[in-house]
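Example record

The entry below shows one chain as it appears in the dataset: sequence first, then structure tokens.
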Amino acid sequence: MKSREYREPLPAALEPDAAEPAEEGAESERREGVIDRAQHGERLDKALVVLAPEFSRSHLQRLLGAGHVRLDGVVADTASRRVKSGQRLEVELVPTDESRAFRPQPMPLVVLHEDEHLLVIDKPAGLVVHPAPGHWQGTLLNGLLAWHEGAAQLPRAGIVHRLDKDTSGVMMVGKTLPAVTALVRAMAAREVNRRYRAIARGPAPAAVFSVDAPIGRDPVSRLRMAVVPTGRPARTDFEVVASRDGYVALRCTLHSGRTHQIRVHAASRGLPLVADALYGGRPALGLERQALHAAELALAHPVSGERLHFDCAPPPDFAAAWAALQ
């Protein structure tokens, strides 16, 4: 971490020591100073804010709890502790999780297609696509940054659509800016065809049915989406492939790409996906994660225009549950 310029001068007693400059590319920086008379009796976390004003108080409190703060050489981990004049305060300024999110992390990718402009992969269940609170590292974005150099120059490393963490299957990624632009436009124009397999619990509906209902944030739970009048237009076509013992195998075609769309539309018809706890599903048929798999992707190549079609076999857990319903 590089040292930063301060917009306002620090109290002289807490001016960071010049003896410990941050090295180029260093992961952390050690900063220290001496508590002056004006700060005598203040809370420790408030004294830290004076020593490192460019960091939020909440982040500094996390550093306290993690043992990165010392008073007179002894670890101090209580934010409310009162400091005394003359004490030497030291802190190891570890970067925030957010600041380390967009970094390369090599990971194995199952590649279905790759050329200069386009990458198509089989995403495993359990892999988060994009960094977010609670998942700042180990995401597909981190893997793409390590996969090819050009990813660092692209918005979201070339990611143009997402699959939920526990959804498996085929995903496309742009590798150049012209490809990303073309893919985003094709998605908006409904020129990319995506078909999924899903397993739900509930009474078998008509062989073919559609749900054309707007989706927006659930007014009761911010973690969920829901069919709401003020939501964005969304349509999903469903085809019943098989049913048995109260479970239904579904083939799903998206006509829009709203968050949790298939999960919300299925649940709205009394067909929550197996193991989808967020929308009322319970584990069954050997599945402990939501029973949703992105099985097919068809599109025009973003640069050449060549028609491409990809079939993606489901992972073993889903395949076994699917077979059990046939």
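Notes for this example: The chain has six helices and 15 strands. The radius of gyration is 26 Å.
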